[in-house]
Amino acid sequence: SFSFTAARVAPACVFALTVFLVARSLSRRHGFAAGAVAGGALLLMPRSFAHAHFAALDTFMSCAYLMGVLSAAWMMQGPRTWLRAPLAGLLLAVALLTKLHGVFLVPLVGFWLLAFYRLRGVVPLLIWGGTGLAGFFAGWPWLWDDLRAFGRLVRAGGLFRPTIVADLPYAFSRLTTFLGTSVDRESISVWYFGDSYPDTDVPWHFPWLLFAVTVPIGLHLLALGGLGRGMRRGSERARDVLLIAAVLLPLVVFSLPRVPVYDGTRMFLMVFPVWAMWAGRGGGGLFDWLSPRYGVRAAATAVTALVLLQGYGLLHYHPFQLSYYNAALSDVVLRPLATIRGRTGNEHVAWAVSGLRGAERLGLEVTYWGDTVGPELIRRWSDAAGDGACAVIAPTLYAGHELVYETEIMARRGQHFAASPASHCGYLIVYNRRAYLGHELLEVIEQRTPIAAESRDGVWLSGAYAVPAAGLDRGAAALPY
User: Fold this and answer.
1) At CA 223, angle to CA 222 and CA 226, rounded to 5?
2) Cα angle value 159/164/167 (rounded, 5°)
3) In whole angstroms, what is the distance from residue 124 CA to residue 89 CA?
4) Residue 251 pLDDT > 70, yes or no?
5) Is the model's pLDDT at 273 over the cut of 70?
6) What is the percentage of the chain residues whose pLDDT exceeds 70?
7) For the residues 412-435, what does the mean pLDDT come to?
8) Mind spelling out the 3-state secondary structure of the chain?
9) What is the mean pLDDT of residues 456-476?
10) Can you give the pTM of this predicted structure?
């Protein structure tokens, strides 16, 4: 079996580094209260906290994006920007080497430099971009072959021959392949307002809605207060605009037609640390307003209590924070979106309900990554199934997906997981990724009492069922093989 325990240490450490950077950068510029609230806000955002427990690149990308934004702002402080630009460029290279999302920094910082610093920003922009691009190629040996191909192209006819533009994609074939990986793959289905969409056809408001309903309401209010406070401070206007744009750009990009977006908030997870900084600004402003009126101790107590209350969702949904939705999720708020889509029937009636139960009634994804098939569920199934048993995992979204759930206890008992109903296993373990569970499979499991199950707020997230081979065959059409 595979064990991801060791691999999870790295994202956990990087998440701790991200919390530190958020808190430290705010405390140095806006005081200890702002920094403490910012660090606490990021720590208490359930979706960010959950992703930090997975052996995946998204937490690394969030940290690299934050470092790229902060280093760009730092680059323009003081007169010697040419000296700071190469260091900021190296962090751009780190972001580009981490994940494709690092390219967001290029237009973000580029337009910001030219908009606010005009001619003074040209030299640092060239140094920053050149260092980042050089570091990107230097740090990825797989791309060195492109540099050799480009060198041969230059030696063959120079840079000024008529066909040079047409020849460049062939010279940089590996870079072109890398840039095309975001779209050159199998489509992923997304469950949104009760319908299944291909990832390139998800409605434009998907990232905005998910961002609005997956951050605790109190942190949103603090961040909005921080935005209002920041817009009134003229001395740091350029830095404030960069931090606002760092939140908006990913959301705008993933709202564009044909841009794939899926897996809940994962595609735009990098906006959460920057949003936590704005929550810190709001928390610091609230502390500054309360202190002269009620004293420092009372102000600190009130702000601390307000921030800690936002941790309810983190604790309540543990360890399934990817299923978190805040209390703003209600039919009162979301009915207009359902109406715009032409859904005016009663299927979306969820009056004044919130959280995961409201998400399910409104037709949003209650889980997507299979994290709800946890060790405890597998242990209970293993104890009940007996030696030599096997179970079909559904849905499985890539080759070998089922193997990541197998445990050492299962190996001792001769148990295993399969991906196909053709294996004729006597058990089914399914998690509630609705876009990949058709009506046939849902009917199969609804007719049976689970051996073991995980749920929150009365919404089932995963379950293990004893299912005869005939039942699996009946539900096989729903499985994405």
Assistant:
1) 90
2) 135
3) 9
4) yes
5) yes
6) 89
7) 90
8) CCCCCCCCHHHHHHHHHHHHHHHHHHHHHHCHHHHHHHHHHHHCCHHHHHHCCCCCCHHHHHHHHHHHHHHHHHHCCCCCHHHHHHHHHHHHHHHHHHCHHHHHHHHHHHHHHHHHHHHHHHHHHHHHHHHHHHHHHHCCHHHHHHHHHHHHHHHHHCCCCCCHHHHHHHHCHHHHHHHHHHCCCCCCEEEECCEEEECCCCCCCHHHHHHHHCCCHHHHHHHHHHHHHHHCCHHHHHHHHHHHHHHHHHHHHCCCCCCCCCCCCHHHCCHHHHHHHHHHHHHHHHHHHHHHHHCHHHHHHHHHHHHHHCCHHHHHCCCCHHHCCCCCCCHHHHHHHHHHCCCCCHHHCCCCCCHHHHHHHCCCCCCCCCCCCCHHHHHHHHHHHCCCCEEEEECCCCCCHHHHHCCHHHHHHCCEEECCHHHCCCEEEEECCHHHCCHHHHHHHHCCCCCEEEEECCEEEEEEEECCHHHHHHHHHHCCC
9) 77
10) 0.91
Kindly tell me if the per-residue pLDDT of 351 is higher than 50: no
Binned at pLDDT 50, 70 and 90, residue 344 comes out as very low
Query: Does residue 81 have a pLDDT over 70?
Result: yes
Provide the pLDDT confidence category of residue 397 given band limits of 50, 70 and 90. Answer: confident
User: How many C-beta atoms surround the C-beta of residue 379 within 10 A?
Assistant: 14
Structure confidence at residue 362 (pLDDT): 87
Residue 291 to residue 308: CA distance in whole angstroms: 19
